[in-house]
């Protein structure tokens, strides 16, 4: 079953890198094109920081954090402690997102962001960022609402 979650991670990496390749090859830096008017656009930006462009230029720190996070995700996916599709799906999404952004950081020294939500003022992000966010939410939902009940069922 762990193989399925590694496939999910790989799918996220391929989807993320594919869209980034498309954006970099077809957009000028800073160019915006509406995809769904007043809902979302693609805007090509380069982010050499972390989320919301904090700590710009700190590549060594981002490499270290990414490697540690990848090891932790692989540990939880391969050890299969929680026996939960919700938890494992969340970790798989986080893993794929971390790898997607790490590829950019190693190859380009920045992360390509492109998804802009037009109906609210929010930072521009990418598929990897979305996968990390959704994955963390799934893990928290599991830990907050399901982990304790499973422990009680075992007793």
What does this structure look like?
Belongs to the peptidase A8 family. There is one protein chain. The protein has a 3-stranded antiparallel sheet. It is globular, with a radius of gyration of 17 Å. The chain is built from 4 helices and 3 strands; from the N terminus they run αββααβα. It is an alpha+beta fold and 155 residues long. A hairpin with a 3-residue loop joins β1 and β2. Helices cover 63% and strands 13% of the residues. It has one domain.
Give descriptors for this structure.
single chain; 155 residues; alpha+beta; disordered C terminus; transmembrane; lipoprotein
Layout of helices and strands:
Elements: H1 2-26, E1 32-36, E2 40-47, H2 59-79, H3 85-108, E3 111-117, H4 127-154
Antiparallel strand pairs: 1-2, 2-3
Helix pairs in contact: 1-3, 2-3, 3-4
């Amino acid at each position: 079953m762990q193989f399925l979650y590694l496939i999910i991670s790989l799918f996220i990496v391929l989807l993320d890198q594919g869209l980034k390749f498309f954006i970099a090859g077809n957009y000028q830096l800073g160019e915006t094109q509406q995809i769904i008017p007043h809902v979302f656009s693609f805007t090509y930006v380069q982010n050499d920081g972390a989320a919301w462009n904090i700590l710009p230029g700190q590549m060594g720190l981002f490499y270290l954090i990414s490697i540690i996070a990848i090891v932790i995700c692989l540990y939880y996916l391969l050890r299969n402690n929680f026996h939960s599709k919700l938890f494992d799906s969340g970790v798989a999404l986080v893993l794929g997102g971390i790898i997607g952004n790490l590829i950019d950081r190693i190859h380009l020294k920045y992360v390509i962001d492109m998804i802009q939500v037009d109906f609210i003022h929010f930072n521009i992000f990418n598929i990897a960022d979305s996968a990390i966010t959704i994955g963390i939410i799934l893990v928290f939902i599991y830990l907050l609402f399901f982990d304790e009940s499973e422990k009680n069922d075992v007793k």
